[in-house]
Design brief:
single chain, about 290 residues, 10 helices, about 55% helix, nucleus, Fun_TF
């Protein structure tokens, strides 16, 4: 049997009288049948899955942050991994500002929920997550007078890899971090809520410092000196130069007890701050 040469498809065969083939009624029936066939084919193509392998999309499982520590992760290993990841990747020009509105201090958002991974000695409230996130994303890279802006851009990485994990090991330093965030936010917001919070954290930092100094030790550790340094910077920013001078004298004495400024830790950050920030003008290596 020879091929007719026709392709498979829909063919209309006119069985009526030749004179009726072009009447309006006949053409209307032809168009209606073609439209029905087109819609039927479309429905069948939707129901029938396409041939070939298809990638299955699995929903991303939600992480229960209350059981974060039950994932079998060692905190020290997690901290070391985070520090190594940030060591070379931090670029001051690439850090994004927080998108949360500054004037609302009580917004709850998914902010810096890896504090447990960093080894914080105490949990954070929602507002404290907000303050910590502002400290990381704004205060460290962009605050006016920050030591890295004057000489060494790498100090942003030092603060992230050395100072932040170190601060989270002491409740007084955590209060000092929140105190600095509140002071920064107070300059950006139109509410007094941050001033009230700053008073709360200032008192916590002072109590922690007094408790550290009351211990019978031959020399002050980095945490104690750092807390006094932050308290001194707060007094300087507030214009209380008598209070700043009192703290500064205490800092000088503690550094002498440590054997000089070069013996301070936190990756060299403490020395850099003492030499190159405004509230420590006049301090030099010889002072130790």
């Amino acid at each position: 049997m020879e091929s007719t040469g026709f392709l498979p498809g829909l063919h209309f065969i006119v069985t009526s009288h030749p004179q009726d083939a072009t009447t309006s009624d006949t053409l209307r029936q032809i168009r209606s049948h073609a439209a029905k066939e087109t819609r039927s084919r479309a429905r069948r193509s939707i129901k029938k899955p396409a041939s070939g392998s298809r990638r299955k999309i699995r929903p991303r499982p939600k992480i229960d942050e209350s059981t974060h520590d039950k994932q079998g992760l060692n905190k020290q290993a997690c901290l070391a991994s985070k520090i190594e990841r940030n060591r070379e990747s931090i670029d001051p020009n690439a850090i994004n500002l927080p998108t949360i509105e500054y004037f609302n201090p009580y917004q709850s958002a998914k902010l810096s929920r890896d504090v447990a991974c960093l080894g914080s000695v105490r949990p954070f409230s929602d507002i404290e997550y907000f303050l910590f996130d502002h400290y990381i994303k704004f205060f460290i890279p962009f605050s006016i007078g920050s030591c890295h802006r004057k000489k060494n851009p790498n100090l942003v990485a030092i603060q992230m890899t050395h100072w932040v994990p170190f601060a989270l090991t002491d409740v007084g330093l955590i209060a000092a971090v929140f105190l600095q965030s509140c002071r920064s936010l107070a300059t950006l917001a139109t509410t007094s809520a941050y001033e009230d919070l700053s008073t709360k954290y200032r008192l916590q930092c002072i109590r922690s410092t007094n408790a550290s100094l009351s211990k019978a030790v031959t020399q002050a550790n980095d945490a104690t000196i750092s807390k006094v340094m932050i308290l001194a910077s707060e007094e300087f920013e507030r214009g209380n130069f008598d209070g700043w001078n009192t703290h500064f004298v205490a800092i000088s004495r503690m550094i002498v007890m440590r054997g000089g400024i070069d013996n301070l830790g936190v990756g060299g950050l403490m020395k850099e701050i003492l030499i190159n920030t405004p509230y420590c003008y006049g301090f030099s290596d010889e002072d130790g």
